Amino acid sequence: MSIKCLDLTHTYQIKSPLEQEALKNINLTLEDGKYIAIVGHTGSGKSTLVEHFNGLLFPTSGEVHIDDYISNNKKRKNKKELLKLREKVGLVFQFPEYQLFEETVLKDVMFGPKNFKVDIETAKNRAIEALRQVGLDDSYFERSPFELSGGEKRRVAIAGILAMEPKILVLDEPTAGLDPLGAKEILNLLKRLHESGKTIILVTHDMDIVLNEVEDVVLLKDGQLIRHADHIKIFEENLEDLSLEVPVSYKFITSLNEHGYHLDVKDSKDVLKLAKSIKEEIDSWRR
Amino acid sequence: MASLTLGRYVPYSSFVHRLDPRQKIMSLILLMVAIFMPLYNFSSTFFVMGILFILLLILMAFSHVSLLSLLKSLRAMWFLILFLMLINVLVPIYGTEHIAFSIGNFHVYWESILQSLKIIFRLFMMIQVTMMLTATTKPLDLTYGLEWYMSPLKIIRFPAHEIAMVISIALRFIPTLLDEANRIMKAQASRGVDFKHGSIKMKFKAVIALIIPLFVSSFQRSEELANAMEARNYDPRAKRSRYHLLRFHFLDLVSFLLCAGVMSFIIYLSVANIDIFAQFGVYGTW
Question: Please, what's the b/e burial string for B37-48 (b: 16 or more CB within 10 A of its CB; e: otherwise)?
């Protein structure tokens, strides 16, 4: 279950004065079971790229292979195969709370599985499980999604996609607009999902998440692929040129290393461990 | 979505674009009256309409209004056209004498067909002139123009400014709502909703999944907008100045006089009941 882009190009409003090339010749392979971040400045084509992964957009030229589904610019689409693809690749949009519409939280989460012809009993079980996964207990099930707080709505919306049991989960800026604690909860949830074997693709421009959470990074600029590398190597790129902010912890570690320390950048997520290794280093100098 | 492009403002700098919106609104009304004037008979009507139509086409070419989108409006009207044809054929009109063809005992008259063609032609021209206005005038200018026409009513406490404000806000939010609808459709499509295919029941469900979130977010937006306006002390009754002043130029006067001239001439033809072809010595036209 990998995603492969071959010369993927997408142009919005082709042959009109408003023509705009959003993606240019992207060649990319996203492997199965990875935790991948797609990073870039606003307007770099991140969202356009992920909308190709579940057949919301189709390439203007080139191809996208998602498992055995081939997405190209041919007019005729097989409706059933497309539906299957959307079940396999769950896409959580930016500010997904706007997609809620049912009377109760449980019904809304059941909406996805029901569309994929899952029987009601299974859909209900899946919905309950998905809601528990995002940390919403029984007391929420019968409430209206519109009376929840922003963070809770976001979690209901994510549960709505999880209940479809997609193999690949794509999220477009899932932490945008959440308070730090809420954002952390979402990231922890994603980590757990990834550990349980799901492929997670995360669209973000938060480099802290890139440094501390993911495995692979896809770097985009103006619709072009700049680099696809592991989450530490990506910092070799001149990120400030791409209008991305380098995390303070990364700057801290690298500048200490420039002064003769031998610290591991991977420790950046754990302040206590970092402090410990700094201390060890100082101790070793004293000896 | 394609039909929504009908009559959308297209930014160019033709002389029609630069005319005063108030004048353009008035011209629209004058031309509409001219289009709907009953004339002596079918040939006179089609002759006069045809000339007016060609003049308007030339004007359209000058002001970069797309002929294609005008023709598209015909496609949107197909049901209306069919309905008109049917009603006109079934209901005999005054002075029917020329049989086009008969189905058994039932006669279909040329007059019925011409009558429906006349109505369709008029409606088509109505769309044409309206498009001329909306495609060459910024929506905001249009509302300023309307406000100007409504302002005398302020004396009887008619809320002219408020109405203009409401219209301009509504116009402002059309693209925003379209974007929003597009986004929600994509989000629901990701959850397996099929907006294009499926039974009526499925489509109904699909529309609900679109409409409810759209309503919720528009209410939210309107509340935010109201708060933002109040935070800046917006008062509809306050006397306000304007950044863009509407000015009536010489060109406006000329185009107004032209439109008024056309209208008066057609009204004269109508009231005096003149058979145009008889003027050229051709008698007995239908």
Answer: bebbbbbbbbeb
